């Protein structure tokens, strides 16, 4: 059977962030490594599924990566009241053949910021400038990213400055009460152990 003929099945996973849920599909939604986050409806012109999701009054943000969609709700709503409605909507939307994302978002950044002039948002780490930064990215990809994605989030490397690693956390990791513990007890401890001469601290910077 052709993979395209297999219907989408969506199941729900809880995340460490009580304000977010992870809606997992049995097939890829985006190519591996690609992702995008939308924090308001005005950002969704190239993301039809996110545009439709923002029609629900309880949606605060939408994060899409590989085979899952992480949704953060408004605090005035309870998941028990809306989670099944969302699962049915996403399943129906996908099985109707509707587009997910027509174009990954890009943003302009200053040329002297260390980034490329145009960066695909939430898709790539900052391009490493040396072997140490390359090693940091390898550690994040090999040891950290799978666990973070399992919780419906994403982590990307931004820069290494005076032995401080700056990362950005998205999806369920954004605003999660346990993200600081994950950052310090997990990511920072691992990088300090593997690169003791080059890493003293890991901090998260807002997107």
Describe the overall structure.
The protein is globular and about 55 Å long. The termini are far apart. It is an alpha+beta fold. It contains 4 helices and 10 strands; from the N terminus they run βββαββαββαββαβ. The protein is 29% helix and 27% strand.
Share in helix: 25-40%
Q: What's the β-strand tally?
A: 10
Individual helix count: 4
Strand-residue fraction? 25-35%
Summarize model confidence as the mean pLDDT. Answer: 81
**Strand line-up in the sheet with most strands:** 1-2-5-4-3
Low-pLDDT windows of residues: 107-123
Distance between the termini: 41 Å
**Inertia-based shape:** globular
Radius of gyration: 18 Å
| Biggest sheet statistics | 5 strands, antiparallel
State the order of secondary-structure elements, H for helix, E for strand: EEEHEEHEEHEEHE
Structural category: alpha+beta
List keywords for this structure.
207 residues, 10 strands, 29% helix
Summarize the structure.
The chain has 207 residues and is an alpha+beta fold. 29% of the residues lie in helices and 27% in strands. The strands form 3 sheets. It has a 5-stranded antiparallel beta sheet, with helices on one face.
Record the SSE blueprint.
Elements: E1 10-14, E2 20-25, E3 35-38, H1 48-53, E4 59-65, E5 68-73, H2 79-95, E6 106-108, E7 118-120, H3 131-150, E8 153-161, E9 164-171, H4 179-194, E10 201-204
Parallel strand pairs: 9-10
Antiparallel strand pairs: 1-2, 2-5, 3-4, 4-5, 6-7, 8-9
